[in-house]
Amino acid sequence: MFAPVYLDHNATTPLDGEVLAAMLPWLEVQFGNPSSRHEYGRAARRAVDEARQRVAAAIGAHPTEVVFTSGGSEANNLFIKGTAACLRPGLLAVSAIEHPCVVKPAEQLARQGWQLRKVAVGSEGRVDIDDWRDVLAGQPKLLSVMRANNETGVLQDVAALADAAKGCGAWFHSDAVQAFGKLPLLFRELNAAGVHALTVSAHKIGGPKGAAALVLDKRVEIAPLIAGGGHERGLRSGTENVPAIVGFGVAAELAAARLQETAVRLAALRAELDAGLVALGARLFGAGAERLPNTSYFAIPELDGETLVGKLDRAGFAVASGAACSSANPEPSHVLSAMGVGAEIARGAVRVSLGRSTTQAQVKDFLNALQTTVVGLQRMTSVSVDAA
Predict the structure, then answer these.
(1) Mean pLDDT score of the chain, rounded to an integer?
(2) Rounded CA separation 228/237 (Å)
C-alpha cells in the first residue's frame, strides 16, 4: 500500500508502540467497568488512577486536578461553558487565533447574554499587549489564550498574560494541546502565575484518539457538560474509556521523558525546512515569533494551498492546508486573517508539522518534491496566462 511520508503531526500522531502494548490488555481480557465493585472493575479503576497519576506527573499537576474527557474539544467546552454556568453573564475574552473549539462555545455564550471580546494579535501572531490591557480594564470574568497555535506554531506567553490578569479576578484557561509534549509545560508554575486550567490531549503525543484532560485548579467552580453517574469528581459523567486513558498515561510519561531530546532534534529539522522554504520564495507565517520546534506554516505566492497539498500528497508527502478540524471550510484561515494576512496569500497556506519519526532525509526529499511541484504549477499558470 502506498504510504506518503507523514508530515502532519499537529493534526494527529502515530500511536507509539509502547502505548499500544499498554492498551491491548484493556481491549481484550481486562474489560471491566471502573465503577463495578468486583475485581474486573477494581482493576480498571486502578488502571485509570495510575494513568491519572502519570498524566499529572508529566504536566506538573496533582492527580486530583486532572479531569479526563473524550478530547481537547470537550475539555475546552467544559471549561468555557462549565465555568460560565456558575457565573452571571459578563465579559468573556479569547484571543482572535483560538481553535474553533474555543471560539464556537464562546460565541454560543455571546448569544446567551455574555459579552465576547476577541483579543487582537500582531502580524507575527502574538497577542497585542495594548489590546490585552484594554480587555483587562473591562473586568472580564473568563479568559482563554492558547499556549501554541495549531496552524502557525506561534507561542503565547500565557504566564505573563495571566499574571497581568490577576487583578481582575477572571478565571484564565489555556488550550495547551499543541504545546504538550513539545515544550516544557508545568501546571504548578503556570497556576502560580494565574493560569487556572489547561487542556491537553493524548493523540497529539503518540497516544490514542478519544482521551484528553482538563487540568483544573480546584478553586474553580464549574458545572459538568455531561450529567449522570458522577464520574470524574462529578465533572464528566460516563463510563471511562479505560484503554484510551491507559494509553494517555503511558504517552504522557514517554513524552515527558523524551521532551528535551525531541525538541532539540525537531528544532534543527525545522530550521533546515524553513531555510529551504525561504529559498523557494515561500512566505513563512509567524517567522519572527517564537514557535513550536516542529511547525512551519507557509505560502508560495500565487499558488493555491489546497492544490499544492493535493499535488504533494500524490508525490508522496502528507501535509495540511490549515487546521485539520476545519479542513472542510473553504474560507481563508481565521488565524491568518487575524494576523493581517490578505485573503489571496492566506488561501495558499500550507502547514508542515514534523514528529518523532521525521528524518533529515525526509525533510530534504520534501523540499525537492515541493520545488518540483511549485515549478510545475507555476509553468501551468504561466501557460494559462499567456493563452489568455
Answers:
(1) 94
(2) 5
- 318-327 confidence digits (pLDDT tens): 999 964 444 4
Reply yes or no on whether 325 is catalytic: yes
Q: What domains appear along the chain, each with residue ranges and CATH number?
A: 5-12+259-387 (3.90.1150.10), 17-254 (3.40.640.10)
Q: Are 210 and 70 in contact (CB under 8 A)?
A: yes
Q: What is the pLDDT of residue 332?
A: 87
Query: Is the Cβ–Cβ distance between 267 and 314 less than 8 Å?
Result: no
Burial class (CB in 10 A: 0-12, 13-18, 19+), 124: middle
Contact at 8 Å (CB) between 154 and 286? yes
Q: Please say if the pLDDT value at position 381 is more than 80.
A: no
Q: Kindly tell me if the per-residue pLDDT of 385 is higher than 80.
A: no
| C-alpha cell read off for 217 | 485548579
Q: Among candidates 311, 329, 328, 323, which has minimal Cα distance to 366?
A: 311
Place 382 in a pLDDT band, splitting at 50, 70 and 90. low
Residue 252's contacts (CB-CB under 8 Å, 6 or more residues apart) are 54, 55, 57, 58, 59, 180, 181, 200, 202, 205, 207
Q: How many Cβ atoms sit within 10 Å of the Cβ of residue 320?
A: 22
Give ∠ CA 74-181-143 in degrees, rounded to 5.
Answer: 45
Q: Above 90 in pLDDT, residue 49?
A: yes
Angstrom CA distances, 302 to 87, 370, 386, stand at: 48, 15, 16
Cβ neighbours for 333, distance < 8 A, ≥ 6 positions apart: 151, 322, 323, 341, 346, 349
Q: Which residues contact 34 (CB under 8 A, 6 or more apart)?
A: 41, 44, 45, 47, 48, 239, 240, 242
Whether the pLDDT of residue 34 is over 90: the answer is yes
Q: What is the pTM of this model?
A: 0.94
Tell me the three cell numbers of residue 356: 518523532
DSSP state of 148: B
Burial grade of 209 (CB within 10 A; 0-12, 13-18, 19 or more):
middle
